[in-house]
Design brief:
CATH superfamily of the largest domain: Enolase-like C-terminal domain
Radius of gyration: 22 Å
Strand content: 15-25%
Oligomer: single chain
CATH architecture of the largest domain: Alpha-Beta Barrel
Number of strands: 12
Order of helices and strands: HEEEHHHHHEHEHEHHEHEHEHEHEHHE
């Protein structure tokens, strides 16, 4: 008799326990905890890391010069008594997720740290045995209640937004997906079958998804590589003439230098959204330098307004002027990212139908749940930005919804270094149809990537404009 490995035994047991006929007509929609191949949380630990940027990164009208990482370690157990540790890490990104004109940086960051402590306690007290997607589904309402409590107790000028809560909770969710995959000896991207999840997508999305499983929207095998979008922030030098004093740390300091070193073909252009002439001239300058340095390349641009455009007419005029002055530059624009205010419900007049006829218009800051995705579609958005910083469960579910609705897909990061970039790249490599990914930490905070390039060659640095992702096959999220 052939001896099977523990990994094969666990997988076989999980599949058998869930039952292959889970979606038979007369079968219950939700399986019992005893039937689930889940994990039980035993303990949650958190820690913070601080890094300074080598140069400030300006977006959304604000220049960021530092990052705080929230690192989460989850200790879990399996139904057969095995103990497993999972790890998740994410920049807290308060400038992006909790923007405020009334509260300074330390206040919004402090609120996120306080919320992280609450989320750690809430997560650590969850006692059901379940799949990480189900755990996050049940705990997210509690996280939002905790955010409201923190807002009240700290007497914040404005409450912690839902987006900020998702960012704060994301490394907790990531650590559980990591632990669950490790418990089975599988990449977490192989754990979204109906047999392992125990539920179909109608529980997490809409009745339209009845009978559909999450795994059918997620590739169990990573693609070999993903296009890298190099970000050009609002303060970044395009040419030598833009530099008053060089940093002198050996890394590129102009766009041309980055293009030569990294073999770039895709660029993300951070725009102001409130200064049309500046936005047009910035785009034309970047297009000009890109073609001078690599004239043979079929350049692709993402134009990101970070929700600062007053209306769609601004976007249409921007596109018209760019096309008028550089037809090739206009043709290189692959998609537009979140042009107007993130609060879609309060800004229903900001529809994107006309702009979307010219280029895909992608929802980013506004995307916090399925309701916001459906509202964005109604308002003319045709694309979805997936982000690890909103949670692995969130990214997987939004990826499924976006594919069903045939929307344009991209993956952006939150200047993710280290384990958080591995996480982000894993999403880009396993979601079919993703057009590309950011990797900003290599530009702005390379110190936080120290040691990671040796572990994942071709992922934290590049010479051909790609992030090489075929290697992302380890158990869990594959980072540690």
């Amino acid at each position: 008799m052939k001896k099977i490995s523990r990994r094969d035994f666990l997988v076989a047991s999980a599949l058998a326990g869930a039952g292959a006929c889970a979606f038979a007509a007369d079968a219950p929609q939700i399986l019992t905890p005893q039937q689930l191949a889940g994990i039980r949380i035993e303990k949650i630990e958190i820690a913070f890391e601080e890094f300074r940027y080598r140069a400030p990164y300006k977006f959304g009208g604000v220049a960021v010069d530092r990052v705080t990482l929230l690192n989460v370690t989850s200790h879990v157990s399996t139904p057969d008594g095995k103990s497993v540790t999972g790890f998740g890490s994410m920049p807290m990104g308060n400038v992006w997720s909790f923007p405020s004109k009334e509260m300074p940086y330390p206040t919004t960051l402090g609120a996120m740290k306080a919320l992280a402590e609450r989320i750690a306690k809430i997560t650590g007290q969850f006692r059901e045995t379940a799949h990480p997607v189900e755990i996050n589904f049940q705990l997210e309402p509690e996280y939002l209640k905790a955010a409201a409590e923190v807002s009240s107790e700290l007497k914040l000028a404005s409450p912690v937004p839902k987006l900020c809560t998702l960012v704060t909770a994301s490394p907790f969710d990531a650590s559980l997906h990591d632990a669950f995959g490790k418990a089975l000896g599988l990449s977490c991207y192989r754990t979204y079958s109906s047999q392992l999840l125990g539920r179909d997508l109608s529980r997490y999305l809409t009745p339209d998804f009845r009978g559909e499983e999450l795994q059918s929207f997620i590739s169990p095998v990573p693609r070999d590589w993903v296009w890298l979008f190099h970000s050009v922030g609002g303060l970044d030098a395009i040419t030598d003439a833009d530099i008053t004093k060089r940093i002198g740390d050996g890394l590129p300091e102009t766009l041309g230098e980055w293009i030569k070193r990294d073999g770039l073909t895709h660029i993300k252009i951070k725009l102001q959204g409130e200064n049309l002439d500046w936005d047009i001239n910035r785009t034309l300058a970047i297009d000009r330098v890109a073609r001078e340095v690599r004239p043979e390349v079929d350049w692709k641009f993402c134009c990101d307004f970070n929700e600062r455009c007053p209306n769609v007419e601004y976007v249409l005029e921007y596109l018209r002027k760019v096309k008028e002055q550089s037809p090739r530059g206009f043709e290189s624009i692959l998609y537009l990212e979140q042009p107007t205010a993130r609060d879609l419900q309060s800004n229903r007049q900001n529809v994107m139908h006309e702009a979307a006829k010219l280029r895909p218009v992608v929802i980013d800051e506004s995307l916090t749940d399925l309701e916001s995705l459906l509202l964005a579609r109604e308002m003319g958005y045709t694309g979805v930005c997936l982000k690890a910083c909103k949670g692995q469960s969130h990214a997987m579910l939004m990826a499924a919804a976006a594919q069903k609705y045939k929307m344009f897909l991209c993956v952006q990061d939150l200047t993710c270094p280290g384990a958080s970039l591995v996480h982000s790249a894993g999403i880009a490599a396993h979601v079919p149809g993703v057009s590309g990914i950011e990797s900003n930490a290599r530009e702005y905070v390379p110190a936080a990537n120290k040691g990671w390039d040796e572990k994942f060659p071709g992922l934290f640095s590049t010479t051909d404009g790609k992030l090489h992702t075929a290697q992302l096959t380890g158990p869990g999220l594959g980072a540690v």
